[in-house]
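Collaborator request, handled under Task 6.
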Amino acid sequence: MLRPFEAEIITEIRVHPERLGTGGRSVSRKGVWIRGHLQDVGRDYPYRMWKRWKSFLEDAGLKIQAGTYQAFRTYIYVLRRFGLIRRAGGSPSTFGKKYYEINPQKINSPLWKNPFKAYVNR
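Structure tokens returned to the collaborator:
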């Protein structure tokens, strides 16, 4: 079942007609989804977020590839570098779960829409 913020994301996704022959892939809104998800749950760890992201794409019938877990972790890294999210507890060990939450000072940042592009172009 879609959550309210997910339904809103679906209306913002544009399908590119020139790509219809290749599956009609849409523009990903992963950053916006992560922001909405963390607003909804408060804090979460990357693996669970990735699983929920994949589930959202499937449930919504969107033709966006979820990507690998490692790619999702890289996305989390970029969000942290821009200060959009911050650590919110977790295990102090290297391999333990690391929880993240939204940085409330950057909740309305335009970087949520495409943080990777800004990261690459800096």
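The cover message to the collaborator said: "Residues 4-120 form a domain with the Arc Repressor Mutant, subunit A fold (CATH 1.10.10.10). Helices lie at 4-12, 30-41, 46-60, 69-81, 115-120. Please let us know whether this matches your experimental observations."
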